[in-house]
Amino acid sequence: MAAAPAQAWPNSGNVLLNGRIGCTYAASNTVKWAWVSASNGESGWAWLGSGGMTRPYSFQFSRVPTSTTTVTVKWGCATDGEHRTSFGLNRPSTGTTATRNICYWSPCHL
């Protein structure tokens, strides 16, 4: 049986940003926290799943505009402190989820 297609809501700004967030170089360099803020004014602590050097994260936006909003994620690593990155976020063309892995090395494979 085929799965039902994902539902997009073009009139809704609800977008769940998720993925994995990472620290590196030592098993003791664990992800401790993550703060998400956007140029549209939304901000807050991201949910972090279990893990160590990498952890799943998510943050629910409720007002993503039809144009791109800039998202900044700051996160803390146990041994080398705070890091940050910024990127654009749009409403997905299908569904309500956007996935972005976050790390401070390139390429970011988590």
The end-to-end span amounts to 32 Å
Low-confidence stretches: 1-8
Largest sheet: 4 strands, mixed
| Helical/strand content category | mainly beta
* Dominant shape: elongated
Report helical residue fraction. Answer: under 10%
Spatial ordering of strands, largest sheet: 4-5-1-8
What's the tally of helices?
A: 0
Average pLDDT confidence is 87
- Strand/helix succession: EEEEEEEE
- Estimate the strand proportion: over 45%
Oligomer: single chain
Q: Nearest-angstrom radius of gyration? A: 15 Å
Count of extended strands: 8
Provide a descriptive summary of the structure in words.
The chain is an all-beta fold. It contains no helices and eight strands. It has strands at residues 15-22, 31-38, 43-45, 47-48, 54-61, 69-77, 81-89, 97-99. The strands form two sheets. It has a four-stranded mixed sheet, with no helix packed on it. The protein has a four-stranded antiparallel sheet with strand order 3-2-6-7, with no helix packed on it. A hairpin with a 4-residue loop joins strand 2 (31-38) and strand 3. 21% of the residues are buried. Mean pLDDT is 87; it is low at 1-8.
Short key terms for the protein model shown above:
single chain, 110 residues, mainly beta, four-stranded mixed β-sheet, four-stranded antiparallel β-sheet, 0% helix, elongated
Task: Provide a compact summary of the structure.
The chain is mostly beta strands.
Blueprint of the fold:
Layout: E1 15-22, E2 31-38, E3 43-45, E4 47-48, E5 54-61, E6 69-77, E7 81-89, E8 97-99
Parallel strand pairs: 1-8
Antiparallel strand pairs: 1-5, 2-3, 2-6, 4-5, 6-7
